[in-house]
Each structure stands twice: as structure tokens, then as C-alpha cells.
Sequence to fold (213 residues):
Amino acid sequence: LHRSHTKVDYDGSYLSRSMDNVVGFKSLARLLAGEGRSAEYEGRLDDALAGYFDTMQFGQECNRGGVIIERLVGIAAESIGLTELRRLLPSLPAKQVRSALARLQTLDASHDPPAVNLEAEAEWVKCSFSLWEQFMHQIHPTMRKNFREVRDNFTSKVNALQSTRRSALVEAAARLFELEKGRRPTGYADLVPAYLPAAPLDPTTGKPIAHPF
Fold:
């Protein structure tokens, strides 16, 4: 994927940059999810799942190693597929739930931490701004404050997506347990290690994802 960068203001918006790729990526994500919806309406559950997971994977890969704005577009794209998947999960039979659980685990393992994109952003700034401009960004109180807010807000959004994805992991594991055991699980003790290798952690708190078993 070709990325064209120009100067960025630390309110998080690019001052001069073509948004064609950004709009195109979001449109493609909606198209992929739409294919999943079409398959779902026709009763083709495997194809429906494939469409939703393709959407999620596209969201991860279209921004791999990119700057903040690109990662935010990827988050939006992955969220489209993840929302559709979570809606479908409660009505799936065991075979499709098991498949969904495996693919969710793969996607979660390939998730980049926010530091990857923050480092790319910092490198891009070095290449795009003069030394004087970089110095001013570091010492100017307003610019420093704005950048800190953008960074913190970005990190929160990345963590929120991972938390939601891990909630879907728990939902899939609980659904599969229910289908195979004939009852709802009472906690992670029922799911680990048969359905999950470990209790998924909330990236913000470091504690197991809260779930109303």
C-alpha cells in the first residue's frame, strides 16, 4: 500500500494530504462486510464468517506500521467486521463458533501495540519537519499538550479495540462451551485451558476481561 505523507498538525489532522486512500479503505471495509451480510442472509454461514474476518484482517493489515491517522482508519475498518461477528456469534452452531474462536485468537496475536504507530509517527515527523520546527514542537507548551492528548487518545482507541476483540474471544469460547456442555460457563475456570489458553487480559488494566458469565 502506498502511503503519501505531508505535514501534520498535533490536533491530529493533516494540514495537506490526499484522503483518497483513507476514504477508499473505509469503503472497502464496508464492501467486505457487506459480502458477509449477503452470505449470512442466504444461509452461507462459512462465507459470512469469512467476509467478517476478511474485514477485520484488512483493518489490521491496511495500516501495519503506519502513522496515527492510518491506524485509526484500520481500527474503524476492523471494528466494522468485529461488530458484525459479535452480532452473529450467538446464533452460530458449534462448527462455526470453533472456527471463529480460532480466527479471533490468530487476529489477536497479530495485533500491533500502539507503540509501533507512535514510533512511525515520530520517525515521520523527523523526516517532514525542519530541526527548528521539531524543537518548537518539543518546547512549545500548547504543542506539547496537544500532542500528548493526541497520543493518549490514540492509545486509548487501540486498547479499546483490543479489549473488544478479546471480549468477542470470551463470547465465542462461552458459546462453544454452552453448545458442547449444555450449560453456560460459570467463569474462566470452565473455559481455560479447554477453550482458551488463558483468560484474555484487558490491555488497560492488565486484569482478565470482565464478562457476565
The two ends are 42 Å apart (CA to CA). Confidence is low (pLDDT under 50) at residues 1-18. The helical segments are 20-41, 45-61, 68-88, 94-109, 114-128, 131-139, 141-181, 188-191.
